[in-house]
Design goal:
Length: 373
């Protein structure tokens, strides 16, 4: 049995070596694709091409007796690596005029990410921070765009401290709230203004499939090149009003971060055994625990600022607190009928999204289980 098993394993090793060789060749071709896209100013992420290719490979896999999901998993992982390879080849510069990119707060993590992207696209980037703010007038004199990427609690103050900008210079910010910063920029600068919110952290390897929200301020035709530049980087640009953005962020950021924070506080005060929780967790709970732990691995000041950035956030959290109490009372009374009634009402409200989320979460659950030590 040992001889037979070793023989089979040797053959598998040979196939693995052949797979590695094919992957290397594929990445070489991807690098060439990146050069062509850079030359012609094409985005690194092409949703139509990706969708068509995956559908075709799934069909071919099924015809060959191979699980289609297996092929899609492999290809999606390869494509993620491909986007990184294409990212390193640089990008076409959209803006044809003169002027530099000034990033206020460029020494922060998000600032460094966009400094790299603008530099790869051929722009001259200047960093304006606390140590050289006294040079602001000189540094913005030739600016094509000034980007504010500083902590939320300093954004309005920094915008108001800016010197007069060139008439056609774009003024924008990366703040996770939009109404107040956008109005402050409109009051400060008479030229083109747009509010931006990158919906990702600074640790992303590239912008492929990453969402950047933009809220119109003034003179859309003059800041359109900036939107197009970000699309070339692979980002998905989503337009929305500042008020609707802030309403959505109350749910997406403030309430979600608050519930993770509260759950973490409860784990700590209950002195839960994390090692045992991880060992006994299902994939779904492991993911939930990962998201809570991820929060506490980051800057507490950032999350305090996000959660407490508006009265709207506080009111939403208060509503959640009230409903949480109502549901606690329900289970304290052992009222299963009311529990089921509320459950069915929410199920109906989710509609088709419930089944969609089950399907989308399956790949995440498989990954969580694969990563189990």
């Amino acid at each position: 049995m040992s001889v037979e098993l070793n023989s089979l394993r040797d053959k598998i090793d040979e196939i693995d070596q052949a797979i590695l060789s094919l992957i290397a060749k594929r990445l070489e071709l991807v690098a060439q694709v990146g050069e062509v896209k850079s030359l012609h100013g094409l985005p690194i992420y092409d949703p139509k091409r990706e969708s068509t290719m995956l559908a075709k490979r799934r069909y071919e896999a099924e015809q060959a007796g191979i699980p289609p999901n297996l092929i899609e998993d492999i290809l999606r992982r390869l494509m993620r690596e491909s986007y990184i390879s294409e990212n390193d080849k640089g990008f076409k510069k959209v803006y044809s005029g003169q002027g530099s990119v000034v990033i206020v707060g460029g020494n922060g993590q998000m600032g460094r990410l966009f400094t790299r992207l603008f530099t790869l696209s051929g722009y001259y980037v200047k960093i304006l921070g606390s140590k050289n703010m006294h040079q602001a007038t000189e540094m913005v004199a030739d600016a094509a765009v000034v980007i504010i990427t500083v902590p939320i609690n300093k954004t309005v103050e920094i915008i108001n401290q800016l010197p007069e900008l060139p008439h056609d210079c774009i003024l924008t910010d990366f703040t996770s709230i939009k109404q107040i910063p956008l109005q402050t920029m409109l009051n400060k600068h008479r030229g083109p203004v747009v509010g931006l919110h990158p919906m990702f952290g600074p640790d992303v390897p590239n912008l492929a499939k990453q969402v950047i929200v933009y809220c119109d301020g003034r003179q859309v035709e003059k800041y359109q090149w900036l939107i197009e530049q970000m699309k070339i980087w692979g980002a998905i640009l989503y337009p929305i009003t500042a008020s609707e953005h802030d309403k959505c962020m109350s749910f997406i950021q403030a309430l979600r971060h608050f519930t993770s924070f509260t759950y973490g506080v409860n784990l700590q005060q209950e002195q839960a055994n994390l090692e045992q929780l991880i060992a006994l967790s299902s994939p779904i709970y492991r993911l939930e625990l990962m998201m809570v732990g991820r929060l506490f691995a980051q800057d507490p000041q950032l999350y305090a600022d996000i959660i407490m950035s508006s009265e709207q956030n506080i009111e939403l959290i208060k509503h959640y607190y009230q409903r949480f109490g109502e549901m606690v009372q329900l289970i304290d009374q052992g009222d299963k009928q009311q529990f089921i009634k509320h459950f069915n009402q929410v199920t109906e409200w989710f509609g088709d999204y419930a089944q969609r989320f089950i399907k989308e979460s399956q790949s995440l659950l498989k990954l969580a289980n694969d990563n189990r030590a």
